[in-house]
Amino acid sequence: MIKVATHLYTIVNVIVFMEVKIDTKEKFTVITPQVPHIYDNMAADLAAVCLPILENKVKNIILNLQAVSAIDDDSAMDIAKLQHRFYEQHASFVICEMKEPVEAVFEKSELMDVLNYTPTESEAWDIVQMEEIERELLDSDDVHFDVEE
Fold this sequence. Notes:
- The chain is an alpha/beta fold and 149 residues long.
- It has one domain: Transcription Regulator spoIIAA (2-Layer Sandwich), CATH 3.30.750.24.
- The protein contains five helices and seven strands; from the N terminus they run αβββαββαβαβα.
- The strands form two sheets. A five-stranded mixed β-sheet has the order 1-2-4-6-7. It has a two-stranded parallel sheet with strand order 3-5.
- α2 packs parallel to α3.
């Protein structure tokens, strides 16, 4: 009986699922982790939630970190890599509502300069919508610039 309990405990410690709130809007999806701490193994769970969205018609993400009060260095790096992956696929990935201790980890890792970050979710909505308009204009074949000679 003790071995079974120990074995189950080990399995529970290895398997980690991140609880997230997902809110789909017209031009983006807001993903809000519902956990106070994000550790390295949980960043993989976050990627597993985010990456399939790249296959959707609406593939822009706002990552709202309002509930997160702590993050480790590796997870911060993984989130920055995840954001980069979205931009490589011509999709927006904006992070918002970081608490000071979380922002400090990104700062310490020198990642704040490469992140697309806004203080509020409303500002993140604006960034995604502006980037979407920019992509539509740049991808359009109808754009012609009149050049005076």
